[in-house]
Write a structure and sequence with these properties.
Layout (H helix, E strand, L loop, with lengths): L2 H19 L17 E2 L5 E5 L4 H6 L6 H12 L8 E4 L13 H18 L3 E5 L1 H8 L5 H4 L4 E5 L2 E8 L2 H6 L4 H9 L1 H5 L9 H21 L22
Parallel strand pairs: 2-3, 2-4, 4-6
Antiparallel strand pairs: 1-3, 5-6
Helix pairs in contact: 1-4
Length: about 240
């Protein structure tokens, strides 16, 4: 990307941010403190998409600044990345009252903003955090417990990318046994970020994707309680809990 193109992306994201901050498409603009557009490297190969801002995000105008954000930063550190090197956003740009689940009309109102962010940033991998982001970006109603850790090829507009669903960091805070699964899924991100998409990949690249998917499937089976690494089984929480997993 040339310097001019890079500057154009920054300028267009800034314009989009102003549009989001002035948005009145849904009633959430009446109850929010401020919109939470997202932040990070506008040219990053990796983008994270969560559900919606919480209390602290609404107050500060930044995504993932609470306890879940601290865990996300720790997970990024485990693969030698910082939050400044990725781009972090949410499906909703405004906090739902009392952190309730996003409603369909609210998701529909915010969806164009998220899709515009993706079209401008053009990440290689979008890591969807939890159920709402995964279902929106995958176009499937399959819950996160069934699809986490397995890359999917997706497309928005003319941009193709890997969608890589993982548990929301808040899920690990409420269910500590999920933390090992979350760490294992995050650990595979660097390899996926350098894997060509299938229709332009060499055989080696395709094998890498299949190997990653196979490894992820094994980890998912263990996480779902069928084959726990320590010999004990545990059952993942319901998909409906917290809207996160």
């Amino acid at each position: 990307m040339s310097g001019g193109e890079a500057n154009d992306v920054v300028d267009r994201l800034a314009a989009l941010r102003r549009e989001v901050e002035a948005c009145t498409r849904c009633p959430l603009h009446e109850t929010r403190t401020q919109a939470v557009f997202g932040e990070g490297d506008p040219h990053s190969r990796l983008m994270f998409v969560g559900e919606a801002p919480g209390y602290h995000e609404d107050r500060q105008g930044r995504p993932f600044v609470g306890a879940a954000g601290k865990l996300l930063e720790e997970l990024l550190g485990s693969i030698e990345l910082t939050r400044e090197q990725v781009f972090i956003a949410n499906v909703l740009k405004s906090r739902p009252p009392e952190n309730r689940d996003p409603r369909p009309g609210e998701i529909d109102a915010c969806r164009p903003y998220l899709e515009a962010q993706i079209a401008l940033i053009r990440p290689v991998v979008i890591c969807s955090l939890g159920n709402f982001a995964t279902k929106l970006l995958s176009g499937s109603q399959r819950g996160i417990t069934k699809v986490h850790g397995v890359p999917q090829e997706q497309e928005i507009g003319d941009h193709r990318f890997y969608l890589y669903p993982i548990y929301h960091p808040a899920a690990a805070l409420y269910t500590p046994r999920m933390l090992d699964t979350l760490r294992a899924d995050v650990f595979r991100l660097p390899q996926l970020m350098t894997t060509p998409l299938p229709d332009v990949a060499r055989d080696e690249g395709i094998e890498r994707v299949e190997a990653a998917a196979s490894s992820a499937s094994t980890a998912r089976l263990r996480a779902d309680g069928r084959e726990a690494a320590d010999g004990s089984a545990w059952q993942a929480s319901s998909d409906s809990q917290l809207g996160l997993f």
